[in-house]
Amino acid sequence: MTTLAAWPYPRWVAHRGAGKLAPENTMSAFRLGATYGYRMFECDAKLSSDGVLFLMHDSDLRRTTNAQGTGSDRSMGELAQLDAGSWHSRSFAGENLPTLEALARWCIANHLHLNVEIKPTEGQEEATGRATGELMNRIWPEDVVPPLFTSFKPDALRGARAVAPHIPRGLLVDKFADGTGEAALNVALELGCVAMVLNHALWDKALVQRVHGAGLRCSSYTVNDEWEAARLLDIGTDAIITDRVDLFSPAA
């Protein structure tokens, strides 16, 4: 019987800092999530034109800053001058767009866990994965639970594994091309992942048992309804990523 990989992370994970209560992927969001008792945070990391990892979900700047165009085409110096808060609400006007290093150092200082979604701009998959691994090799203490790297892009996880094989990886999947999840599970195993992080609707009890039987943990995104969280807990999943930091108690 396959032994499940160790899982040193909390069950509840705050999506992009504090879900929708603050501008996503900003330090204000992560600080706010912490006030709700969350001990693990998910973020999205991309590469700037000068090789600095910054936090942003979209490739285009339009939705979450006062600029437009591809974020990765700008230097970190340019990105740092953007307003990443006004789009959300007036109270966050002037919020800076942070680097992944700034968030990681904050997590380390406050004894918090980090899930880095490697979210590369198209064509930068392996380079972004490698840069993420190199950053954590440089700054993350060896005696502290490491971050969890996740990505929808296998090449990004391969890049991270090449430079930081000791940092756990999880494969993100939004839908199954084969309808069963078997192909995705095989990719996760080939990548040496410790977890599969699926669109919450994909999980059922049989799939949880199959993934656990392969030695991997089961995580879900983005779970914002009480009934769905209860279902996922009932079928034995291991982690839940949520926007509703105000609804779910991470102590549950």
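The record above closes out task 2.4. Task 2.5 opens with a second protein, given below.
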Amino acid sequence: MNTLSRPSAQHPAPSKERLVLLDELRGFAVCCMVFYHGFYSMAALFGLPLGETLLRFFRPAEPWFAGLFILISGICCNFSHSNAQRGGKLLLVALAITGVTMWVVPEEQIIFGILHFLSVSMLLYAALAPICRRIPVAVGLLVQVFLYLGFRTVSGGTIFFGIKLPDSLYATDWLSPLGLHSTAFHSSDYFPLLPWVFVFFFGAFLGRLAANGQFPRFFYPSRIPFFALVGRHALLIYVVHQPVILGVCWLILWLMRGGLPS
């Protein structure tokens, strides 16, 4: 999305004018995720009481800001020159993160986190976009809501309001990217395709309106430049924030104990 001159108030915004509010909302969501992962690291990796307290307080909000981030990512697929290329590159980054966490902090490894999820969702959208574009926006949005509601209990063994899935699907972790896994499965950051992929595709259908310049005018002006800046560099911040958090936690322990943790 390239910033163009602002159109007159009497005409809808052109599809290429930047939707700054989306940058700001994405930046806000990224900041929330950074804080959440900071509290998680303080509690799970370092056992700091303050981290445990903040994590308990913050945990109920985590699906909401993560869902906002996923929704905006779906919207922005309509402005990408190649979702397949973006998804492929992001998948390489996600797999690298899995490798690093399995080596450095195996007890808190990331198997299928939000970057894995987003990369696979982009690749799915790239493959299905020709079909999706033939579906009216309103129909697509309703279908995604129905599917999300139908699959939101898949981790508990049921779909579509009570249909029980075979226990054999949950005997191993091979299907963990879909939300089907054993009780022994653990990933410190976990966003399975079901049901979150339907939030992504809801955003993709909604983004067709944005691409046609049909979003309300209040999406275009800048209000909080800091969040907009963070939102435009979301991937970079997400990749580097965890090492920074770990370093800060080690420093806190060093100051508290007078030496490096054992």
